[in-house]
Structures are given as C-alpha cells and as structure tokens.
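A favour between colleagues. Tell me how you read the following sequence-structure pair.

===
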Amino acid sequence: MAPSSVALLALCLLLPLLLLGGWKRWRRGRAAQHVVIVVLGDVGRSPRMQYHALSLAKRGFSVTLMGFCIGPPVLRYGVKVVFQTVYLLWKLMWREPAAYIFLQNPPGLPSIAVCWFVGCLCGSKLVIDWHNYGYSIMGLVHGPKHPLVLLAKWYERLFGRLSHLNLCVTNAMREDLAENWHIKAVTVYDKPASFFKETPLDLQHELFMKLGCTYSPFRACSEPSGPAIERSAFTEKDARTGVVTHLGGRPALLVSSTSWTEDEDFSILLAALEEFEQRASDGDSLPSVVCVITGKGPLKEHYSRLIGQKQFQHIKVCTPWLEAEDYPLLLGSADLGVCLHKSSSGLDLPMKVVDMFGCCLPVCAVNFKCLHELVKHGENGLVFEDAEALAAQLQMLFSKFPDPAGKLNQFRKNLRESEQLRWDESWQRTVLPLTLPVLPCPCLLPCSHPGFYV
C-alpha cells in the first residue's frame, strides 16, 4: 500500500476519536485566559513567537507554546501535509481549550486550516502573525509558476481570510494584505530582546578567548608582552590589574548571520571582500578584517567550499555555530554587521538587523522593497544593491579604522541616541484600536532569556 494511502487511512480512523475528545473537552468549558501559540517548525528559530509567549504570560494569560518538526525533506509534500494535519489536530484537540490560537505564518500549510477548524469546534479565536508569505518562500525553490506554489498561494489567501485578527511585520505587508488579499492587519514591528546590547570590553575579551579555543581568527597573531598579559586577536588583559584594552592595530570585526538559504546570496559578500582585499593589497589605509558568518542551513557547505578557495591575506573568514548566549555578545562586540537577506516577498524585515540595532551595531544591508522601514540609509547604516557598492561601503567605513570621528562611530552614536518607543507605549498604541481588547499585544515586552517553552 502506498504511503499516502496509509496516511489517509490513519486520518479516517483517527478523526472521529479526535473530534469526540475535543467535543468532550469543549463541553467542560473553555479557558478564557488560555492562549495556544503554534509554530509549525523549530521554535528556537522563531524568536518573535517566543516573545509573544512571554508577553502574553506577563499579561496574565496561561500560555501553551507548541512547536512541531517540519519533517524530513525526502517525504513527498502530500504525505508530509497529511501527517502534520493529523498530528497538529491531535495536539490541539486534546489541549486545554483556549480563548485564542496564535499562529505563525509561514509555514501555514496545513496549520492555518487546522487551527481554524479547531477554533470552530472549540470557540477559539484565530490570530495569525504574518511574517512573510509561505508560497513566496516555496517559489525560491520551485519557481513562482510551479503548481505547488500556485496551490499554496490559493490556500494561504483562502484560509488567511478566516482569522479573527491579523498581525504583520511591516506596513508594506499590511498594505499588500489589504489590497490583494482583503485581509485587515495591524503592523507590529519586531523589537530586540533585552539581552541584545553593547558588550562591555571585559566580556568581549572573555568571548574572544573562548572562541579562540576553536576558531583561529580570534587568536592573537603575536605573543603577549609579558607573562601576566592575556591576549586575543582584538583585546588584551592585564591579569594583575584586570584591565582590558583594545589592541593597537587590531583587525575590524565584521559579523553576518544567516540560515544559509536561497533568500541570501553570500556570493555578494565574498565578491565585496575580494575587492576589499585588492584595495588593501594596493596600499589603501585599510585594516585587516575578521569576517564571522554565523548560522546553520542547507547552503552552508556550498559557501564554505567557496570561502576555502579564496586566497585572502588581509581577511580571515570563519563560519561558527554559536551557543545561544554567545550570539548577542558577538553582535555587541562587532564593528559592523552585514545583512544579505532579500525577502522572498519583499514585504518582511530581517530580524537579524533588529538584533544588531539592539546592540548599537551599524549595518550594511542589501536593498529590497520595504527595507527603508528598518534601515535608514546614512543614519543607522547603509543600503547597497550589489557587491561593488558593498565593497565601496566597506572601504569607506573601515578607512583609517578605528577612527573615533569616522562614519562607523557616527552610526553607532545615532543608534545609541535613537528614541525608540518604550514597550508599554508601543503596547498601548497597538492594542487600543483592536477589536479584541482583552488580547494583549505580543512581541512588545522585553525578554530576559532567549527561549520560552511551556
């Protein structure tokens, strides 16, 4: 018997039991202060949904945060969707009844339909947080005209209209939802968690020494001047006084983070680094650069091979996988961030830039439709179109590094002085116009730790 037939048979056998169990639980009365938050994927890579959970919990709600494995890519779409439908339906129906089901999209197949169906049975209101469009992400792999992509678009548009409340990450997405999908949404911009901040120099030194045990670019290039001196590539510490200072002539620390997927073209950064290397070799007043690209993903091996083929003399590149607590420390220690995220829809903003700005880290970001809602060219960073433009920006920003009067420090000063909305003010401005006044606005309270699981 084919795998799809087995899955369909299992669905037919289990569905009556699921409905019966859910009906019994609904008869007991549903919890008015309970919210279920659903992520069809890795919760660890969904910080916005983690912050939703924290915000709702701090507002007095009982929160259940449900994360699900996407499943191995070798499974066919049909089998995978059937399996996820059964499993998600089972979990939702046997949970304590909820006043709200809070759903991340994408991925929305099959979670939007399942959550809406459960909501109909149990009286729960469906809230969708639109991070992007799932069909546009599928289009990166299969092409925009592929039948699966067109089917996903139809599904997303149809079931997206059945929600009670919609949030989205940009004004551009809000306008697109309203104009093309007839969905009214409220823009809730991402905010950096409280642990994304500038890293004190002593903690920078500890981080560099720790990373130097594994990654050679963080190690000192010369021996310390005495036995009491501890040195990294960027800092040194006097063990007698405990004083940490920057090394004279230290390299610039450039940081980028990625999921190594099709929506980020790292060949742009590599080409820009090659041009920077050439200009440094020609005698321009440029520092050495340590380029750190963090993250895991399907294209990492491909780009690692390309990096290994480069013959850099003034640039060192490493691609570590950092512990959760080290990532914000690294951003808070860096001199410049680079973002190559190019939205599949052109309507979402890269969370990595939000985190960098929380650390007062200036950013060079590849341009797309709504990036101006986050990166203000010439104020908190720079926007580029191609590798040549990025190379010119790197040369300008790192010229005479580290120059206290240089553009990098001016950007950092602007980020420090920028008056962002306070969490409570932002919550009031967003919640009061909503038609669901008892639902506190998520993603607006600072978080004290990276993960939150119920």
